[in-house]
Amino acid sequence: MPELLLELFSEEIPARFQRRAADDLKKAVTNALVDAGLVYEGAKAFVTPRRLALTVTGLPARSPDTREEKKGPKVGAPQPAIDGFLRSAGLSSLDQAKVESDPKKGDFYVAHINKPGAEAIALLSGILPKILSEFPWAKSMRWGTGSFNWVRPLRAITATFGAENEEPVVIPFASNAIASGQTTFGHRFLAPEAIKVRRFDDYVEALERAKVVLDIDRRKDIIRNDAEQLAFAQGLTVIADEGLLEEVAGLVEWPVVMMGSFDPEFLKLPEEVIIATIRANQKCFCLRDASGKLAPNFIITANTTATDGGAVITAGNERVIRARLSDAAFFYQGDLAMPLEHGLPKLEETVFHAKLGSQFARVERLVKLAGEIAPQVGADPERAKRAAMLAKADLTTGMVGEFPELQGLMGRYYATAQGEPADIATAVEMHYKPLGPTDKVPTEPVSIAVALADKLDLLTGFWAIDEKPTGSRDPFALRRAALGVIRIISENGLRFPLKVEADLLAFFHDRLKVSLRDSGARHDLVDAVISADSNDILQITQRAEALSALLSSADGQNLLAGYKRGANILAAEEKKDGKSYAGVVSQDALKLPEETALAFAVDAVHSAVSNHVARDDYRGAMAELATLRAPVDAFFTAVLVNDADPAVRANRLNLLARLRDTMHLVADFGKVAG
């Protein structure tokens, strides 16, 4: 079957846009093909710094004929309804429609519309220019005299269609005065000549000969493997950096890996400073020696094969890195010369948020809040206040001004250098964490106090000014802050009830549900253990885990079935009687041994579960509930709840209410599926 080859050749596409652009191109084209009736077998998109490419295989030569039935208005309907039906069906008169009957709705008009298929090339000629004009670049530009937008100036379009053993046909269309053809170009420097291509296989081979590796993942593999081999030969290892690897693979079409070095004297700088400097300025990878220490070497990825073996390229990178590291050393020494807290007055000049004041005002709030939180998490209040006071001070330093991603970390280095206690210095770094689901969580009491203060102040502040996340929009990272609070509390096993307004508490509940579900908890079990006023994160987590363990056992499953049966009976009878049963069971009204056994069992379990819950022993509480399985089963086997004697019936309904209330001490089993 025929194959589509599309290449959009342009000036350099920013690396951060490339992978998304390839996915968007594939999605846009394949969706349009399906909408046009051109069902395909496979599709794959590719991207390099200078081209977006797509191959779609197994396409039909034309779309199939279709027959559509369009239901119209009733016979005798008003004329406007008739006219609208005729227009939508493409009919000139009702003579072209049929009348069909429905026993309930009467006679109505139906149009049978035959749509002949179309040649794939004709359809693609309309589809492709529309996709180009509507392509969703995050940022685009306009050049020349046209109105066409693209991420960078578009230079050539290749668009061919044809079967494997046939000469392909160029799909005719134009975009911004650039007509489609079958000509592309190789590497900008190593093979810039024009290349005529027919279909995907010879296109890939021709690009390879012209020093272009089309697949970004293959370029990544080349860079990774060559860098590791080069490092291994020197007894070194590459510091893994997936983000940098993705970026570098998006900067080159023909990756060539080399190694450079810098003056070992610079190793006196914090290694994070060296790595950030080399990464940000030269897009190079850093290395470690056999002992795990940072080595005075780096990996360069060039986009060319140099005739001198890369000597000039390496020397040029070494000069730039030496200059950048000298700048970093200057910043570092200048920062060390000034006590960290001397930078605090400068925070008054920095606006945190127009409605929430300066960064200094925020620091004042953090100091107060960290001091209040400290006793609850086992931290010394004065040390927590000191750490909170210094937490944002490094924002005024030269190093953080140059590399904002080092905030907190540089604060720890400077605090340590000026003699602050280790727990305070650590808290300055760790109070930002966790920054994501895989990031470390603070574990030292002072760090925990300041980290919680930082995130709770952020959340309560933005809630107070009604700046809440909406949909996918969360410019102040409030979802991340809430998840950070949840992880700090749960992973440190903290009893830390959240004293926040109801709306913010509901937001925490939503984030906690996401967190628990991501860790494998069933959504219904999470709902079962969260109530509107649940403010103890650890308690909710422990209840969900205990409930999951109970329901994974046969006793738990059978007990749930018995609960559901009893709850359904109780709900139906309460609705019929117009009242709720309070669960007060009269021993004198118990007639059968099975209901007597259940009554005594529920009383005993109620007391035991209450004791376990008071000690936050939810697994113990669930284990007690599991013992009810046998008496519940026996009750429903032998006892008729709706007895003819009203007193006996009421007592049995109270017994079911007592069972329900006992189980609700731990979770709302009514929200559990099954």
Describe the 3D structure:
The chain has 674 residues and is an alpha+beta fold. Helix content is 48%, strand content 15%. Strands 1, 2, 3, 9, 10, 11 and 12 form a 7-stranded mixed sheet that branches. A 4-stranded antiparallel sheet has the order 15-17-18-16, with helices on both faces. The protein has a 3-stranded antiparallel sheet with strand order 4-6-5, covered by helices on one side. The longest helix is centred in the middle third of the chain and has 26 residues, at 311-336. The radius of gyration is 35 Å and the shape is flat. The mean pLDDT is 94.
Topology:
Blueprint: E1 3-10, H1 15-35, E2 42-48, E3 51-57, E4 66-74, H2 79-89, E5 98-102, E6 106-115, H3 120-133, E7 141-142, E8 149-150, E9 154-162, E10 169-170, E11 174-175, E12 178-181, E13 183-185, E14 194-196, H4 200-209, H5 216-233, E15 237-238, H6 242-249, E16 256-261, H7 271-282, E17 285-288, E18 294-302, H8 311-336, E19 351-353, E20 357-358, H9 359-373, H10 381-390, H11 398-402, H12 409-417, H13 422-430, H14 445-464, H15 478-491, H16 502-518, H17 523-529, H18 537-551, H19 554-577, H20 593-614, H21 618-626, H22 629-638, H23 646-663
Parallel strand pairs: 9-12
Antiparallel strand pairs: 1-3, 1-9, 2-3, 4-6, 5-6, 7-8, 9-10, 11-12, 13-14, 15-17, 16-18, 17-18, 19-20
Region (Disordered): 60-79
EC number: 6.1.1.14
Catalytic activity: tRNA(Gly) + glycine + ATP = glycyl-tRNA(Gly) + AMP + diphosphate
